[in-house]
Design goal:
By secondary structure, the protein is mainly alpha-helical. The chain has 20 helices and eleven strands. Helix 1 packs across helix 10 and helix 17 crosses helix 20. The chain binds glutamic acid.
Length: 480
């Protein structure tokens, strides 16, 4: 009988959820859900010095925000597989390490960092480009070990890999992949402080948690033969692996977490007012192509359409403009209540809204809803409405210098003074009255008013500016 499908996303809580991590999580999730399987969130926290406070929590929250909902996690354990944090599973790793040691598949290594370095240097001096552990400790006698221990040395454990052994597997994304152990060397499975290394712990966990498929970033490809060697020693079923291609920027360079020009963390997108539906949809197309070039997906339509065979084997280009275009699409779809909730915090950054009702906030938001690419953009777009810009372009200055300008502004101000509402018809009638009284129409009529109100010669319709600012403020600006 086929084993039930179980996949996992296993971040190290050494930082916050990155676009690459979110993509790994998403594809594992889609694969699981498409096939009716289980998605596990496991925490690989053995690199203790690099863990950051709140890393686990924020990664999980960001996944949930994206709609990627773990079936199992530290907070939602299945007793059969718990615990889900590696630092809570240390005894388990030690038991398996002990077994490897007893079978002769692992051995204690007492070499110091300096000795290891000296060995590497010597190999390089002999023309070996990729030095490996020289197996100095493979056959230590009891006396030699006792001597090292007396010196206060603490051993790590190394895996004794099979010599000249071929490791091949059929990658779900890349097709057949082939390695040879001669290029690998005996690697450390448990550090001298008793903490297992990633490549060791991950195998124990994936096996005990009955993980059947692993989708992860290409940077883990070279780890896979190490992990497969362990599966072979233990005699365990090997999961199917799929290594997703790198994400590159517009210049074809691998996206680096240190590249501060490109936003890469979910928290940054959330902060700027990207919608989870948009980010999800964008990430979905970052490494996967639907059969019919469909562009917009909900989580459930993506689950239904997902086929692992359509994951791309060439690098995926991260195009920030496409992401913003997609976000704009989803912003425009929001109904009034959702849009209000979304936009309110950004409008609060723009101006004091304590005395304003929701209708006012929504009215302002709607003025920019069509063009807005992300929520925080409204702060820039709407700024002139709250802090008029200084007029300095030649065309506007010319209009302000027209002999008709001062009379037009004063006549319009008088009309505003007399208004009891700011309906479109009322404001239109006011312009008409000014036009009739002064014989001025078109640009010399509208532009001076607009410039007085916002400082910019184009943009939001005057009637909307008037509605938004209210009588008192409009008069203050016209006469200021
Ligand atoms: N903790 C690893 C990482 O964050 C997980 C790798 C894996 O999926 O095996 O890269």
């Amino acid at each position: 009988m086929e084993k039930p499908i179980r996949v996992r996303y296993a971040p190290s809580p050494t930082g916050f959820l990155h676009i690459g991590g979110a993509r790994s999580a998403l594809f594992n999730y889609l694969f699981a859900k498409h096939h009716g399987g289980t998605f596990v969130f496991r925490v690989e926290d053995t690199d203790i010095e690099r863990n950051v406070v709140g890393g686990e929590e924020s990664q999980l929250n960001d996944l949930i925000w994206l709609g990627i909902l773990p079936d199992e996690s530290p907070a939602k354990p299945n007793p059969k597989y718990a615990p889900y944090r590696q630092t809570e599973r240390l005894d388990t790793y030690h038991q398996y390490a002990q077994w490897l040691l007893e079978k002769g598949y692992a051995y204690e290594c007492y070499c110091s960092e300096e000795e290891l370095q000296a060995s590497r240097d010597a190999q390089m001096a002999n023309g070996i480009a990729a030095p490996q552990y020289d197996r100095h400790c493979l056959h230590l006698t009891a006396e030699q070990k006792a001597k090292y221990i007396a010196e206060g040395r603490k051993p790590c454990l190394r895996l004794r890999i099979q010599d000249h052994h071929d490791i091949a597997f059929d990658d779900l994304v890349r097709g057949p992949v082939h390695f040879n152990n001669d290029d690998i060397g005996d690697w450390v499975i448990v550090k001298s402080n008793g903490i297992p290394t990633y490549n060791f712990a991950v195998v124990i966990d994936d096996h005990l948690m009955e993980i059947t498929h692993v989708f992860r970033g290409e940077e883990h490809l070279s780890n896979t033969p190490k992990q497969i060697q362990l599966y072979e020693y233990f005699g365990w079923d090997i999961p199917r692996f799929g290594h997703m291609t790198i994400i590159v920027n517009e210049h074809g360079k691998k996206l680096s977490k240190r590249d501060h020009d490109i936003l890469q963390f979910m928290s940054q997108y959330r902060e700027l007012g990207f919608l989870p539906e948009a980010i999800f949809n964008f990430i979905l197309l970052l490494g996967w192509t639907p059969s019919d070039n469909q562009e917009f997906f909900t989580m459930s339509s993506a689950i239904a359409a997902f086929e692992e065979s359509r994951m791309s084997a060439s690098p995926s280009m991260f195009d920030p403009n496409k992401m913003m275009w997609m976000n704009n699409h989803y912003i425009r779809q929001l109904d009034d209540a959702t849009f209000l909730k979304f936009i309110k915090p950004f409008i609060a950054r723009l101006t004091d809204i304590s005395g304003k009702d929701d209708a006012w906030v929504l009215f302002l938001g709607n003025l920019f809803k069509e063009q807005m690419r992300f929520g925080a953009e409204i702060v820039e777009l709407a700024k002139p409405l709250f802090t008029p810009l200084e007029v300095n372009d030649p065309e506007s200055l010319e209009v302000l210098a027209l002999p008709t300008t001062t009379p037009v502004i004063e006549a319009f101000a008088k009309q505003v003074e007399a208004m009891n509402d700011f309906e479109n018809e009322t404001v239109k009638a006011a312009f008409k009255a000014v036009q009739t009284a002064l014989g001025v129409k078109g640009k010399p009529l509208y532009m001076p008013i607009r410039l007085k109100l916002t400082g910019i010669p184009h943009g939001v319709e005057i009637v909307n500016i008037v509605k938004l600012l209210g009588k008192e403020e409009v008069l203050r600006r016209l006469r200021g």
